[in-house]
């Protein structure tokens, strides 16, 4: 797990055309999905040093997926690529014909073969690395088949690497699923996340809020949250990330900047505003007896409290 000021090596791998560079550009370079068709194909490896949450640096290796490169990774470049990795993100393109029982086509067989080589290399050089598999471009699969296609890929991947703990996501650049996957990936790199969640639980109770959520300032990926009520939309955070990021891009086009906004109706009020240097907070309140001024005062006090925790050396504090 990354410590403040350290760099986390993240490998982004998969066959050519899987959409690796597109998703990286949407999350970290503020691309719109419709603009990713202008991106060039990655040749060999592109290194990116990305600052996330202030002191958390991601050393992202975007590995080109042409067959000649993939074979090279697992032969002459194994140690260089796979040594000291904290996370491997392996991207596969969802194939619509992969429904019902598992279907082995030459392309899916090659995908799984490369994945098996990646797991062997990771086991040798970075045995504690976390592995995330993204079944990508699910928008190209008929909606009625997506869940089955995803489950078949997940089953095949787990069968290919039975000793590895895999976390699989179905993703598309055209909806909130991409943000959900990357939020979980980054969440795994934040130190002492349990202490942060405990502090958010306290803030949520003090504010009598339904939910308090922290987002990273630039990417608007979810950092952590506390809920006191059952929420029915399991994708709400990713939808908010997507909406706010689109809104921030629109603000930039007219040379203004997004700072905060509030949504209020007869059922609830939701406010999104800056929290600390690298984070935004969203607070949702449904109790009409809770005065907005009281919520604002509690948030102001919470900022001072979290800043003091950071000064006292709380591992998560440097990232907020």
Strand proportion, as a percent range, falls in 15-25%
Radius of gyration: 21 Å
- Strand arrangement within the widest β-sheet reads 2-3-1-4-5-6
Largest sheet: 6 strands, mixed
Describe this structure in words.
This protein has 320 residues and is of the alpha/beta class. The chain contains nine helices and eleven strands. Strands 2-3-1-4-5-6 form a six-stranded mixed beta sheet, sandwiched between helices. It has a five-stranded antiparallel beta sheet with strand order 8-7-11-10-9, with helices on both faces. Helix 5 links the parallel strand 5 and strand 6. Helix 6 (177-187) crosses helix 8.
Task: Please give the structural blueprint.
Layout lengths: L6 E8 L5 H9 L16 E8 L3 E8 L3 H7 L4 H5 L4 E7 L12 H20 L4 E7 L9 H15 L5 E5 L6 H11 L5 H14 L4 E6 L5 E6 L8 H18 L7 E4 L4 E6 L4 E7 L6 H20 L9
Parallel strand pairs: 1-3, 1-4, 4-5, 5-6
Antiparallel strand pairs: 2-3, 7-8, 7-11, 9-10, 10-11
Helix pairs in contact: 6-8
Provide a brief overview of the structure.
The protein has helices at about 20-30, 65-75, 80, 105-125, 145-160, 175-185, 195-205, 235-255, 290-310; strands at about 5-15, 45-50, 55-65, 85-95, 130-135, 165-170, 210-215, 220-225, 260-265, 270-275, 280-285. With about 325 residues, the protein is α/β, with parallel strands linked by helices. A six-stranded mixed sheet has the order 2-3-1-4-5-6, sandwiched between helices.
């Amino acid at each position: 797990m990354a410590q403040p000021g350290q760099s986390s090596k993240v490998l982004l791998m998969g066959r050519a055309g899987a959409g690796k560079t597109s998703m990286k550009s949407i999350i970290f370079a503020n691309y719109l999905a419709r603009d990713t068709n202008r991106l060039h194909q990655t040749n060999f490896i592109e290194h990116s040093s990305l600052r996330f949450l202030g002191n958390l640096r991601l050393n992202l290796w975007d590995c080109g997926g042409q067959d000649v490169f993939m074979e090279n990774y697992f032969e002459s470049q194994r140690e260089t690529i796979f040594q000291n990795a904290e996370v491997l993100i392996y991207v596969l393109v969802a194939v619509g014909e992969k429904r019902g029982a598992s279907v082995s086509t030459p392309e899916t067989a090659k995908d799984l073969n490369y994945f098996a080589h990646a797991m062997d290399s990771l086991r040798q050089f970075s045995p504690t690395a976390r592995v995330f598999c993204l079944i990508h471009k699910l928008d190209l699969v008929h909606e009625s088949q997506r869940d089955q296609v995803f489950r078949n890929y997940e089953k095949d991947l787990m069968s290919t690497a039975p000793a590895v703990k895999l976390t699989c996501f179905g993703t598309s650049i055209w909806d909130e699923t991409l943000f959900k996957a990357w939020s979980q990936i980054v969440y795994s790199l934040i130190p002492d996340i349990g202490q942060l969640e405990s502090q958010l639980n306290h803030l949520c109770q003090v504010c009598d809020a339904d939910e308090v959520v922290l987002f990273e300032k630039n990417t608007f990926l979810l950092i952590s949250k506390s809920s006191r009520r059952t929420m029915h939309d399991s994708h709400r955070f990713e939808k908010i990330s997507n909406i706010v990021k689109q809104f921030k891009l629109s603000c930039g086009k007219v040379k203004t900047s997004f700072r905060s906004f509030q949504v209020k109706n007869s059922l609830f009020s939701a406010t999104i505003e800056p929290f600390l240097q690298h984070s935004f907070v969203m607070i949702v309140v449904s109790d009409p007896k809770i005065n907005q001024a009281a919520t604002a005062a509690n948030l102001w006090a919470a900022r001072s409290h979290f800043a003091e925790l950071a000064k006292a050396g709380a591992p998560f504090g440097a990232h907020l």
